[in-house]
Design brief:
The complex is a heterodimer of chains A (112) and B (116). In chain A, strands 2, 4, 5, 9, 10 and 11 form a six-stranded mixed β-sheet that branches. Chain A has a five-stranded antiparallel β-sheet with strand order 1-3-8-7-6, with no helix packed on it. Chain A contains no helices and eleven strands. Chain A is 0% helix and 57% strand. By secondary structure, chain B is mostly beta strands. Chain B is globular and about 40 Å long. Classes of the chains: A mainly beta (112), B mainly beta (116). Chains A and B meet through strand 5, strand 9 and strand 10 of A and strand 5, strand 9 and strand 10 of B.
């Protein structure tokens, strides 16, 4: 059974701080997606990484896919209150491009 | 509409009753997914449709759960004889369904189901 573990589960920081969220597995994934979910809404895709070692930047967010395609990280620089939300990682199942394995999420609170 | 819509947004029912949850995907999206999200459990895959057929229904928790899709568009998730453990947010997502790669899934706001 493929599993994705996210850490930390909860994170509360002050505006302006940096943070990193991790997504780890013992399984290899064909791709890794990061979503953000706000209360009362569905998850919204932030990025998809598909190549081992790939790094993608989205403004203050930096996403990295591990060389072996088993893990990923999300780094936020100078966090802002608008970054508050639940960050979910989801791994693409090799050979099944319609199936995602989801982590439990990291709940981030950025305090002004 | 511009996005995925779901109805009702909230549903309170009594144990043992049947409920129907509806999903309207983005126009033109041939792939449709149902997930369940519970506190501390993350997103649990339930079923996936490609057009009107369901190639993967491996995530349906029991035979009390069923889903259909008609006209390649609207989908209904039905839970019969609801139990308290069915209480969760039920999320629907759609994607283009044409790529040989992991596509972007666009999610609706969910239906919050509470079984008393």
């Amino acid at each position: 059974t493929q599993l994705l573990e996210q850490s930390p589960q909860f994170l509360s920081i002050q505006e302006g701080e940096n943070l990193t969220v991790y997504c780890n597995s013992s399984s290899v994934f064909s791709s890794l997606q990061w979503y953000r979910q706000e209360p009362g809404e569905g998850p919204v895709l932030l990025v998809t990484v598909v190549t081992g070692g790939e790094v993608k930047k989205l403004k203050r967010l930096t996403f990295q896919f591990g060389d072996a395609r088993k893990d990923s990280s999300l780094h936020i620089t100078a966090a802002q209150p608008g970054d508050t939300g639940l960050y979910l990682c989801a791994g693409g199942v090799t050979g099944n491009n319609r199936k995602l394995i989801w982590g439990l999420g990291t709940s981030l609170a950025v305090n002004p | 509409g511009a996005g995925v819509s779901q109805s009702p947004s909230n549903k309170v029912t009594e144990k043992g009753k049947d409920v129907e949850l509806r999903c309207d995907p983005i126009s033109g999206h041939t792939a449709l997914y149902w997930y369940r999200q519970s506190l501390g459990q993350g997103l649990e895959f339930l079923i996936y449709f490609q057009g009107n057929s369901a190639p993967d229904k491996s995530g349906l928790p029991s035979d009390r759960f069923s889903a259909e899709r008609t006209g390649g568009s609207v989908s209904t998730l039905t839970i019969q004889r609801t139990q308290q453990e069915d209480s969760a947010v039920y999320l629907c997502a759609s994607s283009l369904g044409v790529g040989g790669y992991q596509e972007t899934q666009y999610f609706g706001p969910g239906t919050r189901l509470l079984v008393l």
